[in-house]
Amino acid sequence: MRTRQLIDTNMPMFMNDTENLTAAQTAMLRAVADGEYRFNSIPVVRKYELGSAQTITRNKRMLTKRDFIEKEGNKYAFSDPIFELWFRREYC
Which domain holds residue 79? Predict the structure, then answer.
C-alpha cells in the first residue's frame, strides 16, 4: 500500500485522536515534528507558545502516555511514523 493511501486510510482515526488536544499539546507535537527537544528553552516556548514549565511537563507526560510521542535518548519522536506524516501534512 502506498504511503499516501495508508495516511488517508488512517486519517479518520488520526483526526479523532487529535480533536481533543489543547492548543499547547498540538504546538508541542509541531515542535517535535520540527526536531525540537529543549521544550523549556525560551526561544522554543515562545516560537510554539508551549506555556509554563508545568504545562510543558504535563503535556509531555500526556502525549507520551497516549502514545503520540516517545522518548529517544534526550529527544522525543512520534510513536507512529504514519501519524507523523499525517500530522506534518495537516499541521506543519
Answer: 3-91
List pLDDT tens digits, range 17-66: 999 999 999 999 999 999 999 999 999 999 999 999 999 999 999 999 99
Q: Which residues of 22-45 are buried (b: 16+ CB within 10 A; e: fewer)?
A: eebbbbbbbbbbeebbebeeeebb
- What is the predicted pLDDT for the residue at 63? 98
What is the pTM assigned to this prediction?
0.92
| CATH number (domain holding residue 35) | 1.10.10.10
Distances (CA, A) of 33 to 1, 30, 49, 78: 24, 5, 15, 8
Would you put residue 5 in left (φ > 0), alpha (ψ -120 to 50) or beta? alpha
- Split into its structural domains, the chain has a count of 1
Q: What's the DSSP call for residue 41?
A: S
Q: How far is residue 20's CA from residue 43's CA, in Å, rounded to a whole number? A: 26
